Amino acid sequence: MLLTVDVGNTNIVLGLYEGAELVGDWRMRTDARMTADELALTVRGLLGPHADAVTGISALSTVPAVLRELRVMLGRYYARVPKVVVEPGVRTGVALLVDNPKEVGADRLVNTLAAHHLHATACVVVDFGTSTNVDAISARGEFLGGAFAPGIEISVDALAARAAALRKVELVPPRSVIGKNTVECLQSGILYGFAGQVDGLVRRIVRELQHDSSDPVTVIATGGLAPLVLGESETIKEHVPDLTLLGLRLVYERNVR
């Protein structure tokens, strides 16, 4: 079985593949102070009866401190298991058409690979995580760049911290866009505001992608916070929650034979 590990700024997502089938996935919070031993213990605990069935590992980390401990964990506890850590030099087949390819996060890279694997069109990937990433992919699978916006949770946290009369609220749709109380006003601004922000960015990116062509563009949402916005977005057509894990599987297949 292939274990995929996606270390993000907020959560670590694990996926277990048997062939091309995702048979299980788990989520844990990211702690930059976590040691390699703690990480290994938590991973084994989540995998449960599958812990000793791991025959390959594909991983990435956008958190440098955790990346260091991840490498130690893999070397100490999975020394004999074939493994790939996504970094410069790893074969992905993705051309990076940006000013500084070294700046492109590993998560954006594998999302590009996965989106192109799923669709033979140009794509826009909206990744709802700590930040909201809106990335453009050509019909040939080239990474073209994108846009960053503050993520939903950090925006809510910042608002609650800086406004004395406001607080964190449950992120569910209010009765109407026009909120009748403080909670509903916050819910309306968060849900419909972020949906409008994403739709605006996506529409502008799609126009640029179709500047010289009228070919279709597939808009894909992924990330842990995507379900909050999916029902309100007018541009997102597909939800692939395991897009990054799929990309990690594809990277492993390209590098380990």
CATH topology category name of the largest domain: Nucleotidyltransferase, domain 5
Name given to the CATH homologous superfamily of the largest domain:
ATPase, nucleotide binding domain
Helical run tally: 7
The best one-word shape is globular
Structural classification: alpha/beta
Number of separate structural domains: 2
Write down the secondary-structure element order. Answer: EEEHEHEHEEEHHEHEH
Report the CATH architecture of the largest domain.
2-Layer Sandwich
Report the sheet with the most strands, covering strand number, pairing sense and barrel closure.
5 strands, mixed
Gap from first CA to last CA: 14 Å
Give the radius of gyration. 19 Å
> Level of helix content?
25-40%
Uncertain runs are none
Placed side by side, the strands forming the largest sheet appear as 3-2-1-4-5
Q: How many strand units?
A: 10
CATH top level label of the largest domain: Alpha Beta
How confident overall, as mean pLDDT? 92
Binding site for K(+): 127
Catalytic activity: (R)-pantothenate + ATP = (R)-4'-phosphopantothenate + ADP + H(+)
Binding site for substrate: 105-108, 182
Keywords: ATP-binding, Coenzyme A biosynthesis, Cytoplasm, Kinase, Metal-binding, Nucleotide-binding, Potassium, Transferase
